[in-house]
Amino acid sequence: MRRACFVACLVLACAGVPEPPAPGTSQVWGQLRLVPREGVSRGGAGGGSYGDRRLRDVEFVDYSQPGFAVVFVEAEPPPGGLLELAIRSTRVNTHLDPAIAAIGAAGRLVVHNATSAAHVLSYPAAGLVQRLEPDERVELALARVGEQGLFVLDVPDAEATIFAAPGPFSVVSQTGRFELRDLAPGRRELRAWHPRFPPTVESVELAADAQLRVDLEMGVSRGSSGHAEEEHAHAH
User: What is the pLDDT of residues 94-111, one digit of tens each?
Assistant: First the structure.
């Protein structure tokens, strides 16, 4: 019984460490944590979610779950990929699906009008405005790096946010975990993007055949923030 408990504990202890990177490359992994603005706390003195009567009807952000966020490093050439979006209609509304997504900056977008009506698609970063007939598709090259929007002009609030990463990237999990594998060794700027918070950046030194844990924080007043801890791949 004691042996079984020991093995179970050992498995749990190692579960958080990802698989080693390819020989000669590096790996970065860690947690992204959202930090509320200083002085903000849940509830308090009848002031509602933020302890302020003026914000009594504003829903408190769950900072334990970062939502959609991207952690990335810059590298040449940038990654590619194919991102498919669709204009969809339900009983409630017409919308772009997904409403937020990430892709490598060298990738392509495909937008499909999956409704039974014609709609006008706008991609301002590329200077594009195009009418899409029912079931029509249009393929687009990404206009630039970073955050950009797509809009259905004839439908209020029908829009999508796309983040084009200039290098290897990881969309964080619901718990904030991210992992970037098989990176070239050297000094890199590890960056995090979130649609509602200022970006954050952490300078890291990547060694060959090593795993580096970096925990990042994002918030209104955080700026550059992180904690790095190197773990050599052969030790696991």
Answer: 999 999 999 999 999 999
Distance in angstroms (rounded) separating the CA atoms of residues 190 and 168: 10
Quickly name the fold that domain 20-34+65-74+172-236 has.
Answer: Immunoglobulin-like (2.60.40)
The CATH H-level superfamily of 82-165 is: Cupredoxins -  blue copper proteins (2.60.40.420)
DSSP one-letter string for 64-76: TS--S-EEE---S
What does the pLDDT read at residue 172?
97
Q: Which tokens sit at 181?
A: 């594998």
CA distance 80 to 166: 10
Omega cis (within 30) before 77: yes
Tokens of 226: 């992180």
**Cα–Cα distance, 187 to 28 (Å, whole number):** 12
Task: Report the run of H or E that residue 12 belongs to, with start and end.
Answer: helix 2-15
The terminus-to-terminus CA distance of the chain in angstroms comes to: 25
| For range 118-138, the mean pLDDT | 97
Residue 35 pLDDT level (bands cut at 50, 70, 90): confident
Q: How far is CA 174 from the centre of its chain?
A: 10
Domain borders along the chain are: 20-34+65-74+172-236, 82-165
Cα 112 from Cα 88, distance rounded (Å):
9
